[in-house]
């Protein structure tokens, strides 16, 4: 179907579908990368969430992810994208105007060789997965009507500010090394999820004490979508099919495999068992940790980052969490704070240590932009002051993202609580999916149903005589 002429950018006629600025290779890769990131959410996190929770919460948990993906898209194209990436002189956020205006989507994206439509869709996939990751802290008790309001509000007032200040035109532009969202996506989702979990309250007491996953095999399926989908997550961040893209993808998988194996080894040494769920957690922390530096560090640095992401979040989750009254007071269902906030912060700091100056210059399109980023502390020989300054910016970015998300998430939860209850009522918490949605995940015999009695076949007398006759 052809587009109306008023949707074509100025100077582009109906027969000029491939203008000189368009790179078909970059355009194709960006659409593939966007699809891979989308698959991380739907079906990746839909499957993962629906499998990691208790059976009675499988439908609700999966549906929270699916709903968020849909409403995030409409919010993004109608106002949120321009708030996050509009070129407006503001320290925190851009103007809430639509991205689907005449003559915009098919124009050239700023400094990229593909249309604006690609950029809008790719950044939507990032925004959607951020709020879905946040949901992992709230599974098993949040009122679905409250969640319906929470998603667009949080996307509007929290996510867009983080994206604008670090990636857009905000006050931290060209200061924080955050290649693909260690701060903007993972630190923000971990902090916001933990904060929202505090305001929503804990799960039903029995659920909190006994919350076995309902399908381990499907957990691995969802985890597989996450791991392979991260090829698009970190591979799409340079917005071109160039050298940095290849390095970022390789580093992503190296760090992830290392982190998984370190987590697994710690489980085997301490608990004497190789936990599948533990391995998945180690996989996730590796993916998160490498994200802020995937395209600007060497592969050997990715191995070190994987070792640290497999051990430090393991310690905070498996040891510190159990000893800390603070962590015990908040019911973070899937430990999103540890897998995303801790791992994202760790990745941001390590990116400030290992980022190579030549890779920074390759990544950023102009020399002035590249010079704004100090070299990694390890590579600041003769420029120690610049390396230390960059570490200071990395810490400043983490403080800002943490404070903003904690404050704004609290305000959003308090506002919603004046309209509907944040937490389900006790009856729904006791029953689960059937009470909330009128549906159950699995139609299994034994859940209130009886096996039908088998019908006895009537055997004709002649057949009975043949069967009983002596040979």
From TrEMBL:
InterPro entries the record matches: Ammonium/urea_transptr (IPR029020), Ammonium_transpt (IPR001905), Ammonium_transpt_CS (IPR018047), NH4_transpt_AmtB-like_dom (IPR024041), RhesusRHD (IPR002229)
Any Pfam family: Ammonium_transp
Domain Ammonium transporter AmtB-like: 28-442
Localization in the cell: Cell membrane; Membrane
Predominant subcellular localization, coarse grouping: membrane
Topology in the lipid bilayer: Multi-pass membrane protein
Transmembrane segments: 28-50, 57-79, 119-139, 146-168, 180-201, 213-233, 239-264, 276-294, 300-321, 333-355, 393-416
Keywords: Ammonia transport, Membrane, Transmembrane, Transmembrane helix, Transport
GO cellular component: plasma membrane
A Gene Ontology molecular function term of the record: ammonium channel activity
Domain of life of the source: Eukaryota
NCBIfam families: amt
PANTHER family on file: AMMONIUM TRANSPORTER 2 MEMBER 3, AMMONIUM TRANSPORTER MEP2
Homology family: Belongs to the ammonia transporter channel (TC 1.A.11.2) family.
Protein name per Swiss-Prot or TrEMBL: Ammonium transporter
Organism encoding this protein: Corchorus capsularis (Jute)
């Amino acid at each position: 179907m052809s587009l109306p002429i008023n949707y074509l950018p100025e100077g582009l006629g109906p027969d000029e579908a491939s203008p000189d600025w368009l790179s078909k290779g970059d355009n194709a890769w960006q659409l593939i990368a966007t699809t891979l990131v989308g698959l991380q959410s739907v079906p990746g996190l839909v499957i993962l969430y629906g499998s990691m929770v208790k059976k009675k919460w499988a439908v609700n948990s999966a549906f929270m992810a699916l709903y968020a993906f849909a409403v995030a898209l409409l919010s993004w194209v109608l106002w949120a994208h321009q708030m996050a990436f509009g070129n407006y002189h503001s320290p925190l956020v851009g103007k809430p105007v639509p991205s689907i205006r005449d003559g915009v989507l098919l124009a050239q994206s700023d400094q990229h060789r593909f249309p604006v439509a690609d950029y809008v869709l790719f950044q939507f996939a990032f925004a959607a997965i951020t709020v879905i990751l946040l949901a992992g802290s709230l599974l098993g008790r949040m009122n679905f009507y409250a969640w319906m309001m929470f998603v667009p509000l949080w996307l509007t007032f929290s996510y867009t500010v983080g994206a604008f200040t670090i990636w857009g035109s905000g006050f931290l532009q060209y200061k924080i090394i955050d290649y693909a969202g260690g701060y903007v996506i993972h630190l923000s989702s971990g902090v916001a999820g933990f904060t929202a979990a505090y305001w929503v309250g804990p799960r039903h007491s029995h659920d909190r004490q006994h919350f076995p996953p309902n399908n381990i095999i499907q957990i691995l399926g969802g985890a597989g979508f996450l791991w392979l989908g991260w090829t698009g997550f970190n591979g799409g961040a340079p917005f071109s099919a160039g050298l940095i893209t290849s390095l970022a993808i390789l580093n992503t998988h190296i760090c992830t495999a290392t982190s998984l194996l370190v987590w697994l080894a710690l489980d085997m040494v301490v608990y004497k068992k190789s936990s599948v769920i533990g391995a998945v957690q180690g996989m996730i922390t590796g993916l998160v940790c490498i994200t802020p530096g995937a395209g600007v560090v060497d592969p050997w640095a990715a191995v070190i980052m994987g070792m640290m992401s497999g051990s430090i979040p393991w310690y905070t989750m498996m040891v510190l969490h159990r000893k800390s009254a603070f962590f015990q007071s908040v019911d973070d269902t899937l430990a999103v704070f540890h897998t995303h906030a801790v791992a994202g912060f760790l990745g941001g700091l390590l990116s400030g240590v290992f980022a190579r100056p030549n890779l920074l210059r390759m990544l950023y399109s102009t020399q002035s932009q590249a010079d704004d980023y100090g070299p990694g502390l390890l590579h600041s020989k003769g420029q120690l002051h610049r390396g230390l300054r960059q570490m200071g910016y990395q810490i400043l970015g983490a403080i800002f993202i943490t404070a903003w998300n904690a404050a704004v998430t609290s305000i959003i939860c308090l506002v919603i609580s004046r309209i509907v209850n944040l937490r389900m009522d006790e009856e729904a918490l006791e029953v689960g999916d059937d009470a909330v949605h009128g549906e159950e995940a699995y139609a299994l015999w034994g859940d209130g149903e009886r096996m039908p009695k088998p019908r006895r076949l009537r055997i004709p007398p002649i057949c009975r005589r043949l069967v009983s006759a002596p040979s």
